[in-house]
Amino acid sequence: MSRIAVVSPDSATPDQKALLDTIQSKIGMVPNYLKILAHSPDALKAFLGLSGIAEAGSLDPQTRERIALTVAQANSSQYCLSAHSALGRNAGLSDAEIEANREGTSRDGKAAAAVIFARALNAHLGEVTQSEFDAVREAGYSDGEIVEIVTHVGMNILTNLIGKATRVEIDFPRVSLQAQAA
Predict the structure, then answer these.
(1) Burial class (CB in 10 A: 0-12, 13-18, 19+), 97
(2) Does 45 share its domain with 94?
(3) What are the angstrom distances between the C-alpha of 27 and each of 20, 21, 31, 132, 157?
(4) pTM, to two decimals
(5) If you count Cβ atoms within 10 Å of the first and of the last residue's Cβ in the chain, which end, N or C, has fewer?
(6) Burial tier of 172 (Cβ tally within 10 Å: 0-12, 13-18, 19+)
(7) Is the pLDDT of residue 21 over 90?
């Protein structure tokens, strides 16, 4: 059971309703984690602003979903893992690729470098080694794309925290977390 009730369109303030309506019109639904964020319209606006900027970047949708999957699995965020498994499929990722992403890699060589780097960023809160940094650059990622990878990791950590802290109800097909290696 969610620790914070979702903001419903029926009970929303005018500011909350406008934000929820915008999300609904853009993606065809309002995921529950955004309904939680709607309790603070300013927090929701900030998240949507950063998300919009990140979506306009040069990383392709598949790589963005790969990053989200590896971070969600590493952080044991079942809500985000479920959401990004569905979104990853919609972006064209196969079940085998989603599984590889959850394990911290990819079946695509260049994407593997981004996923491995994202996992290292998450695990060490940005304190990556020079060799980890060099590996993502050597895979062909530009400085701008590296900044975008860092941005996506940060956004996904935020949504993982929201999902876990609030225990928001999963409104995507439920995906079970993998057991973490000791």
Answers:
(1) buried
(2) no
(3) 11, 10, 9, 35, 22
(4) 0.94
(5) C
(6) middle
(7) yes
